[in-house]
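Hi, here's the filled form for the chain we discussed.

Project: internal
Contact: R.S.
Residues: 492
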Amino acid sequence: METTEFILREKDESGKENAVYIVRRDGVKPQTNITQSSSKQRISATRILRAIFLPAGFPNSVSDDYLRYQILNACQAFCSSLAGLLASRAILEGHGVGKADASATDALLLTILQDVFSRLCTIISAYYLGTSLYPEAKTYRLLADILNDAALVLDSLSPHLSSLTLYLLRTPQFPFLSLTFAHRPGPFRAVALCTSGILRAICGVVAGGSKAALTLHFAQPASGKGTGDVGDLSAKDGSKETVLALFGMLCGSALMPYITGARATYGLLAILVTAHVLLNYYAVRGVVLRSLNRQRTGLLWSAYRRGTAFSKAATPLQIARQEHIFARPSSLYQSTPGTDASTGSQTVGKCHVGSSLLGTLDIRKPDIVFTLIDIFAEENYIVWFDHKAQTNLVVTMHIMLKDGHAVEDHLKAWILATELASLCGTPVRRERTSTELMNALLDAKHTVNELFPEFLDKMHEAGWDLTAAAGGFVTGIPTTIHIESGEAKKTR
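And the returned structure, exactly as it came back:
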């Protein structure tokens, strides 16, 4: 039977229906009746705002935690904007705005000095922190706002530091330093402004890098129904930040004339800074990253190894609930036993990646070096304890990378270190022998080699993105080793 009618439905990237077309054929001449949906005929204010401030294809083009983060991020941006107005007014007061004896040249020179410190600190912080921003995006995103708040507090206090001078008072007993108020300006205001410039420079570096990492995360929906546009998402975030900054300036302009006294100023500043930090904390805490770093890898492996966890790997949401926002990159973490994988975590040791061979192994014991080379002959890494491991209460290990190491080698080496720390990480009051450490290494390596392929498959099923793990374990430029076999020369 020949079909006489077709119904065509148009949908946008978010899956919302825009129009319905009903096509009928009567005889030889085609006849088309088009019935458009009411949503296409009406252009509401909600749709306009949605198109301006939300990325194309929302919500299918972003991750599940995007909306919650953006709501909290908008609230914290508003608090930061108001606090910034208080700090800007304090800086102008410190420069002497409204005073007849104020010098524009002094204000210019102080601004130049502050800018010099800020630019130098930007270069230095980018050198030391650049490779750590992507794997520790949540940590540095929260740290950036804390540093920014500290800079705002220093700027707000700077006018009161102009007359604060350090005196060396001498008494019959001994001389001592005293902070007193003097009639001539002291150096503490300049120190406070330069320090705020340094903090703001570090904030700019870590905020830029961590924001880029979070943008990449938000543009990768976990459902797999679509792919987000990183450029569009960044542009829409910039539009939201611009509107919030304007709104904060308008509210601040209406509020500033009524906030004149020191008690009201610093009371409002304390409220805004506290709210800013708390909103950022909950925003970052709600981000569920699917990429791996050192902490998440340790928690994921220990959850997989515990009890019934052999059947499946923990999901990114479960790991996000127990990971620490501020964690030492060298610490080895494992999830604590409980009813599920999101009960808590604890530190079981320390591990350094990309260590030097001579700085790790005791060259007075060449037999250990030969044994380790044989054990890791098929791997692109070597894992061994610190040369003081026999006496340290906390297990400390080093991962030495060979030429040709890749992301999977970093992942496997860190898992081996976590497994090894869980075997001998219990503090003991006696000296560990080299034989005990070597036996523990062999047991841990056997376990990892047996379970690692299945572990990778379970991680894929749980929703982890292993392709995004590049750079999550190695920071900076690691030291690599190249092993060549040679024959000893015979002596006559």
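Let me know if anything looks off before we file it.
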